[in-house]
Amino acid sequence: MYHDENSMTSITSSKTLTIARIDASITSSNEIESNFVLQNLPVILFNAKVDTWRASKDWHLGSNLPEEVNRINFQHLIEHFGEMTAPVYNCKSGHCITLSVADFLQTWQKYTTSTTSSTASSKVRGPPLRYMKDWHLVRDFPEYHAYDTPEPFVTDWLNDWWTLPDGRKLWATTNNIEHNNNDYRFCYMGCKGTYTGLHHDVMNSFSWSTNIIGRKLWRLFPPSETHKLYHIQFKDQLVEDTRNNMYDAKNFPNVKQAIYIEYIQQEGEIMFVPSGWHHHVHNLDDCISINHNWLNGCCINNVWEYIEEKWKATKAVISHLEEAMDEIEFVECCSKIMGADSGLTPNEVVAMLMFWKKRLMTRKDQNENEKDVNESDVKATAATAATAATAVTATATELHDGSEERLNCVIERCLELWPWTIKEMKPDNVNLNSIQSDNVTNDSFVAKKTKKDNKSNNPDSDILDRTT
């Protein structure tokens, strides 16, 4: 593992794995990307300017208050965000409801232990174990600017696809598909004792999580340990909590053999969770955190493996219907089921890949053009220069870490699995010859599609009109 005595210390868990703790103020973004993001290893960042975020200043009543006093600025949060709604999970029952931010926070505040009286009778029981997750803070309040994405994590293909005007919105409009104003940038809020059970992040994406208020206990399992975390009989059932006495050892006999990283994340620290690492997280205090799911060329192979497995699993579930359908109908049915299950159809997967490909090519061209510009002719304010420096850093890393090669490989594999999606490859997006394998062809599928369409248009056809 990468080691630099001047910029990091290692925290050792009881299961022998280590997590690096990096001082972000003296470690470059490129170093963090190269040694952790690209290597798919977890890392803790501190001194990462979290204290300068608006969220850290306005949501927090101060660190000098007595320990028993709740330090959440409920009034500010309710005034600014109260009308918005988000999913709220009951950590005891497992049920999920939708509440407004105001209703959720007012209930939480009501049960906060009172410190205005010295008598024990003035204290009330703690709040119900309800956890507000996946609240789209940036989507709902784009002008508020609660935080800045940490520099090592700014190359974010997933949220670019969902939020940029030439991303999913343009693709959906062009194809007459509904587009929801969505993203994967969240705020989590929960009282002491709330938690998130064992899982890996959506689509095998990366995630980063920053504690604005409170501490979290993390357990992270490398992909090599995943097979030890399942039910002995029900092979797709994960254990929820791997801590001692928190699971049925008879049904999950291999959990105790799994090695993991355990870490208590402090306020202001940033946790980077790699692709495919299962983890569960427990709030040791009343907590508010900022979390992103994101991906880029560093983890695109893992993301593709997840998508490919989803496709195969979908086909397997309805394999008994395959003989009753022609090939095109079966594919369309699988596509719709996969879209309902994972939010992604094959066509959208390829459209998303091509969007990323086009952006990489544009950045590559811009990078070449910048080399021809005489630096003495560039006049910019300090703020503009700082912004440009961040953009150039992200671009330079992305253009030299193998992202383009991995993306091209994934596009080839998509075309081999889903040859009909070649229609998503617009001529202005990319030269197909640069990515398409010789053995990838759409001709046979198009011929079958044409034959099917002709049959469907023939009033004498004996093919039933099946809704998929």
Order of helices and strands: EEHEHHEEHEHHHEEEEEEEEHHHHHH
Shape: globular
| Helical fraction | 25-40%
CATH architecture of the largest domain: Sandwich
Tell me the number of strands: 14
CATH homologous superfamily designation of the largest domain: Cupin
Strand order of the largest sheet: 1-2-3-12-9-14-7-6-4-5
Structural class: alpha+beta
Looking at the structure, the CATH topology of the largest domain is: Jelly Rolls
State mean pLDDT (0 to 100 scale).
83
Instruction: Work out the radius of gyration.
Output: 25 Å
Number of helices, counting only DSSP H or I runs of 4 residues or more: 13
Low-confidence stretches: 1-14, 114-122, 380-393, 427-468
How are the SSEs placed, and which strands pair?
Elements: E1 8-12, E2 18-23, H1 29-37, E3 43-46, H2 54-58, H3 74-81, E4 85-90, E5 96-100, H4 101-110, E6 130-135, H5 137-140, H6 157-163, H7 168-174, E7 185-190, E8 195-199, E9 206-213, E10 216-221, E11 261-265, E12 270-273, E13 278-283, E14 287-294, H8 300-317, H9 327-342, H10 346-371, H11 382-400, H12 403-417, H13 443-457
Parallel strand pairs: 2-3
Antiparallel strand pairs: 1-2, 3-12, 4-5, 4-6, 6-7, 7-14, 8-13, 9-12, 9-14, 10-11, 10-13
Describe what you observe in this structure.
- This protein is α+β, with helices and mostly antiparallel strands and 468 residues long.
- It folds into two domains: 8-152 and 189-222 and 259-294, Cupin (Jelly Rolls, Sandwich), CATH 2.60.120.650; 300-371 and 384-457, no CATH class.
- Helices cover 34% and strands 17% of the residues.
- The protein contains 13 helices and 14 strands.
- The protein has helices spanning 29-37, 54-58, 74-81, 101-110, 137-140, 157-163, 168-174, 300-317, 327-342, 346-371, 382-400, 403-417, 443-457, and strands spanning 8-12, 18-23, 43-46, 85-90, 96-100, 130-135, 185-190, 195-199, 206-213, 216-221, 261-265, 270-273, 278-283, 287-294.
- The strands form two sheets. A ten-stranded mixed beta sheet has the order 1-2-3-12-9-14-7-6-4-5. A four-stranded antiparallel beta sheet has the order 8-13-10-11, with no helix packed on it.
- A hairpin with a 5-residue loop joins strand 1 and strand 2.
- The chain is globular, with a radius of gyration of 25 Å.
- The two termini are 50 Å apart.
